[in-house]
Amino acid sequence: MNELVKIEDSISLREAEEFLWLEADTLDRADYGAWLKMWVEGGYYVIPLKPDESDFKNTLNIAYDDAHMREMRVERLQGGFAISATPAARTIRFLSRLVLQEAGKGFLKVRSAMHLTEDKFGRQRTFVANVEHYLVRQDGELFIRDKVIRLINADGVLTSISYLF
Amino acid sequence: MNVAVNNSGRDYAELVSKDRVKTSIYSDPALFEIEIEKIFNRTWVWVGHVSEVPDKGCFKTSWVGTQPVIISRDRKGEIHVLVNRCRHRAATVCEHSQGKTSSFQCPYHGWGYALDGSLRGVPYSEGYEENFDKSQFGLKRLEASVYAGMIFASFNPDVEPLEDFLGNARLWIDLFMKQGGGFPVKVSGEHQFSFPGNWKIQLENTTDAYHFPVVHKPFLQSLDSETEDLFSFLDGDGFVEDLGNGHSVMVMMPELIDLDDDKGWEIPKRFAELAEALRGKYSEDQVRRIVKAVGGVGFNLNLFPNAACSLSFFRILRPVSANQTDIRHIALGMDGGPEEANQMRLRLHEHFQGPMGFGSPDDAEVWERVQRGTAGGPDLDIMVNRGDGLEKDGPNGLPQGNVSAETGMRAAYTMWKRMMSQ
Q1: Could you tell me the residue range of the domain that residue B220 belongs to?
Q2: CATH class of residue range A2-151
Q3: A159: chain B residues, CB-CB within 8 Å
Q4: A42 — contact with chain B (CB < 8 Å)?
Q5: Which of A1, A124, B43, B365 stands the most exposed, by the fewest C-beta atoms within 10 Å?
Q6: Does the beta carbon of A4 lie under 8 angstroms from any beta carbon of chain B?
Q7: Is A155 on the interface with B (CB under 8 A)?
Q8: What residues does each domain of chain A span?
Q9: Model confidence, pTM
Q10: Cβ A81–B358 below 8 Å, yes or no?
């Protein structure tokens, strides 16, 4: 019994990797409804502007979304009125080089490297980032609590982005 | 003959008529070079804000047209704008976007420059003739002038005083800065993004209310109903006014022209929680002033050729090539103001602006679509005739049109024509 609880509680890196790939695939398919369901409430989806920023609340970000903003962002991308997302760029992304940051009872913090290519108007653009996931287990399932996307060029000159990282 | 003809015999004035412009002004690379020479290298160009160089020794890199510059504050507190290029063999002397230093040193042969750009040290100077005059080899210095905290620079030593150039726009700049809510306005971060299109497409956009309900429908849909009403200004009493010298103001929310005018203003629901948080620390008058300032002003002020004071932020364009423009969306805060109010301002900025905002990507998309569209029908014109013939005389004797009139674009193109004809 004790052993079962232990297995239930901890999250292995391999399990996290599968979850991150599932999330990446969900985002590449722009299945944002399913993506929203991968979150627990209370956490933030953040794309900071400075490479080592940790005080997101008191600094300007590219995105700083609580659950409500995430929902609105998905509505915007799927509503058919946002011209930049109609049609949106197609994306294919890789997540790799997972590094365990912290693990404990029912949670795991992991950093990975993301490489994404978008295609629109016959033109391809690339985004590269370190992505930090704070994963939690609830009722046996994995969820995202926080996600921080640190684009390598976040404080440089970007181009408009019509999908989610 | 009253037409402008340059050395190559080209008539630039004919590209712009009262109600339309030629399509080639968005796409002609040769014309772009002339614009840089005759406009960006001649007039006052917005380069930064004093809060980006707050102390002695602070610097910030920026651009004037296509040229890289450094804004630096010397030991006396004076602001200088210097071309970022060593006078020896041209290497840039600074590749940090912002910071603090006592000097600028060229990485190639070690020439050292003071904060005011003067050449101080040349390594192994015995390799030069005795009459080598260091005073002739300082970093190239531009004219620099500050109005209401905004730093402008010009390559033209004979440029008119900045105050004269800004002219009627000064009043609106003063009104814009009231969003400090009793505190100095400071830069609190910036988004930068690029779009594959001509700089004038962006210049026009800041004075284009007509696009708002179309392009920004998803932004409007993300607002509460009270705020959506505020942003549904096409049916309101707003106006666009030509301010002269290419500048214009587009008033979208007339009730938010003067933020110090508290009469009849009620704290909107979206700011109720903020007001409540401030009440323990500030008087009710101060709370109202700060909260009203958080939402920004109700107008966009377009400053020819590259800046806009837009609602609650600075929008700065940089022409890169005929078909590429880089844009800075600079967030503003209250220097020394309440943390809650500054956080709210950051969140409002993130909501609309930047490469992933609820507004900017849609703007960038339609600007790119304009550029793409110019490949078709080169014989057709770009129409800027909305409101033409329906304008009245504004307070300065210059045209004033309805909020969605293209009065501001005509103002900018009148200046464009004037400068390109010189």
Answers
A1: 168-420
A2: alpha beta
A3: 193-195, 355, 364
A4: no
A5: A1
A6: no
A7: yes
A8: 2-151
A9: 0.95
A10: no
